[in-house]
Amino acid sequence: MEGETSSDALTRIMRKCLTGRRYLIVLDDVWNFKVNDQFVSLFPENNNCSRVLFTTRLEEVAKYNSSWFSKHDVRFLNKKESWDLLRQKVFDETPCPHELEEAGNKIAENCEGIPLTIVTVADILSRSNDKTLEYWNMVAANKQNSVFIDAYEQMFEVLYPSYEYLPQHLKPCFLYMAVFPQNYEIPFYKLVRLWNAEGFLEMGFLETPEYATWFTLDQLYMNNVATVHEKSLNDITKTCGLYSPFWHLCNKEATKIKFFRGLNTLDHCLVQEDLKGQRRLCIRNNVLFGIKDAYDSIASVSTVRSLLCTGPYHQYPVPVCLEYLRLLRILDALTILFYEFPMQVTNLVRLRYLSLTLNGDIPDFISKLWNLQYLIVHRCLSIVESDGKSPYLPMEIWDMEELKHLHVMGSDLPDPHCEDSLLPNLSTLLDVSPQSCTKDVFERIPNLRKLGIRIESTPDNNDDDDKPLCCFDHISNLDNLETLKCATVNPRIMLSKVVAWPPTPLHCLPSSLVTLSLSGFGFAWKELSKISSLPNLRVLKLKRYAFRGPDWEVCDGEFPCLQYLLIEDTDLKNWTFRSRSYYLPRLESLVVRHCYKLEDIPQKFGSHLKKIELVDCNPLALDCIDLEKTTSRYKGRGVDLSVRYSWD
After folding, report:
1. DSSP assignment, residue 620?
2. What's the CA gap between 327 and 347, in Å, rounded?
3. Are 560 and 583 in contact, with CB atoms under 8 Å apart?
4. SS3 of residue 645 by DSSP
5. What distances in angstroms separate CA 367 from CA 347, 362, 397, one per listed residue?
6. What are the Cα distances from residue 532, in Å, to 471, 553, 555, 557?
7. Could you tell me which residues come within 8 angstroms of residue 246 by beta carbon, excluding any fewer than 6 positions away?
């Protein structure tokens, strides 16, 4: 028609063709957020059960169009469904030979519930002339088998748009998740540290690295390219990772654009074209350092900024070519054992992140690493002396003003050597003993947000020795402290003498505290009232006889903001509320584990409760209530009630 645009003409023709007809329109793999704005006007409403179906990989696309369309999340297939699909695609109507069923089930399981992987693997198997048990067992035994590699290659073009359409700031974060081995469950806080040290995180003025990492991961989840493996008590990601097809895609793309190169075998080390110009090397087999050809090849990559040893822990020292990699900013070598501190590290003045497993001492020249933000040292052997005292870090640690995270197992932070000593950026200090918890130390780390204290009690301590509790005396000086974890290394000894200790100093905890974890103290339950009024306390974890005694009574107004409570391994028998009103009004998640004497559990929690989990507790704890009635009430409120016994 005259003056009509091509878009208007298409709309008119489509509506004319569909008016009065019953139709099904499928729009596959939609990437445009405004699909409803562009297409809905094309389809007339005939009131005859016509349907428009569109598929998308992007959560935001589905949410944007939810006012027009009903949203349905496609789940992964379970083991049975995976095997049924694989068997159908391989054998069609022909029965599967009985001897192949066990291997077939394993192959299907290795497809990780992803229909595209199952169909692709099945197609390769169906076209193979080798359908012997030996061949299928070989395929089932290893996801690095050529069948799976071929399948991932075939899927690459289909999956690549998921990477290509990512916002630019998410692409390095997504690729970086593949530096770890295939199907590795990446600890959330390790990703926080590495992403931050690499400079990937986009943080607002008031944002923390943890929040920026959580937000970045959430965007990757919404794009369906990453997955959560495990969540913590308070519903925060503990571990995450990539499914195998995306892991393969990331490794291929990262090698191509010189983002990183993963080295699994000697052959990988000898392909100079793949190594040349790489900015990151991921050593997934630490033995490679002990092979001269591999060592020389790795040492020749002068452009490397990050050396990530992500393979299994190797219990024997191997030579690491640090003297040749002068531009390193990240050295993650926790899976390699060093008997002594590697002297070559002191020349790596650009280092921001250093983690290793070491049995020797930290030298005073560590302060030459003036850019270092993360220092993490694990121990292979115990270095705690018989008197229970831990060695101190060198005094020069106070000169490292860029430090954000300090975790040196078995070592303490010394008292500052001069008045202007200050670690203004230190936000995390872990695995220190009460020796480090002095007023002078705490005053020089004013921005500390996370503190982990390790208490070592030895058999030769006097029963009236209250020195282990001195760690609480000056915590009130930490005005920004949000997370405190305090645990005893050997709680059996502590419990044998706890009754002789003076009243607990829990009233000294700062009001800024959000998460508190206590383990092995054996305090009386009534002492909990000293922390019950903390205004920001949302997460409370009580483990391994943190409190002891048969009775705990919660009083009016206690723990007004508590959202997550864990009670684990204690002799608690009766847990009650003082009156009949509702208590713990903000509680969302309650987990009780290994409380074998527990007979009484309160029922009147606030309306925010979402989850109750009881694991290996005394069955009498449930006999005191009408389980069927309680289950009905909780489920009616959307509460996930889980009761598990390992002896069932």
Report:
1. H
2. 10
3. no
4. coil
5. 11, 10, 6
6. 20, 12, 9, 8
7. 159, 162, 178, 225, 226
Phi and psi at residue 214, to the nearest 5°? -60, -45
| Average pLDDT for 27-41 | 74
CA dihedral 552, 556, 558, 560 (to 10 degrees): 140
The DSSP symbol for 14 reads: H
3-state secondary structure of 77: coil
Q: What is the pLDDT of residues 475-497, one digit of tens each?
A: 988 999 999 999 987 755 445 54
SS3 566: strand
Lookup result for tokens 């070559």:
344
Q: Which amino acid is at 411?
A: S
**Residue 528 per-residue DSSP state:** G
| CA 309 to chain CA centroid, nearest Å | 18
Q: Around 5, how many Cα atoms within 13 Å sit in the side-chain half-sphere? A: 3
CB distance 437 to 475 below 8 Å: yes
Cβ atoms of 433 and 391 closer than 8 Å: no
* Contact present, 165 and 325 (Cβ < 8 Å): no
Angle among Cα 240, 241, 242 to the nearest 5 degrees reads 150
| Both tokens assigned to 619 | 């069955």
The pair of three-digit structure tokens given for residue 363, joined into one six-digit string = 């030298």
pTM of the model: 0.89
**Mean pLDDT in residue range 178-194:** 95
Q: Which two tokens stand for residue 524?
A: 């009386």
Q: Are 571 and 545 in contact (CB under 8 A)?
A: yes
Other residues' Cβ atoms within 10 Å of the Cβ of residue 607:
9
| Contact status, residue 524 vs residue 549, Cβ threshold 8 Å | yes
Return the bridge partners of 376, or none.
Answer: 355, 407
Task: Decide if pLDDT at 460 tops 70.
Answer: no
pLDDT digits (tens, 9 = 90+) for 370-418: 999 999 999 876 444 444 456 789 999 999 999 999 999 888 888 887 8
Rounded alpha-carbon distances, angstroms, from residue 569 to 497, 504, 549, 598, 616: 18, 20, 12, 10, 10
> In sequence order, what DSSP letters do the residues of 463-503 get, joined into one string?
TT--GGGGGGTTGGG-TT--EEEEEES-HHHHHHHGGGSPP
Cβ-based neighbours of 429, under 8 Å, separated by 6 or more: 406, 407, 413, 436, 445, 448, 450, 451, 452
Q: Given the structure tokens 């969540």, which residue do they identify?
A: 231
Q: What is the DSSP letter of 335?
A: E
533-576 pLDDT, tens digit per residue, is: 999 999 999 999 999 899 999 888 889 999 999 999 999 998 88
Confidence of residue 225 (pLDDT cuts 50, 70, 90): very high
What is the percentage of the chain residues whose pLDDT exceeds 90?
A: 55
Strands 237-241 and 227-231: antiparallel
Instruction: Give φ, ψ of 334 to 5 degrees.
Output: -65, -25
Q: What is the DSSP string of 117-156?
A: HHHHHHHHHHH-S---HHHHHHHHH-TTSHHHHHHHHHHH
556 Cβ contact partners less than 8 Å away, ≥ 6 residues apart: 578, 579, 581, 583
Is the Cβ–Cβ distance between 402 and 370 less than 8 Å?
yes
Does the pLDDT of residue 449 top 60, yes or no?
A: yes
Output b/e per residue, 126-150; b: 16+ Cβ within 10 A. Answer: eeeeeeeeebbeebbeebebebbee
Strands (E) across 315-413 are located at 330-338, 353-358, 374-378, 405-408
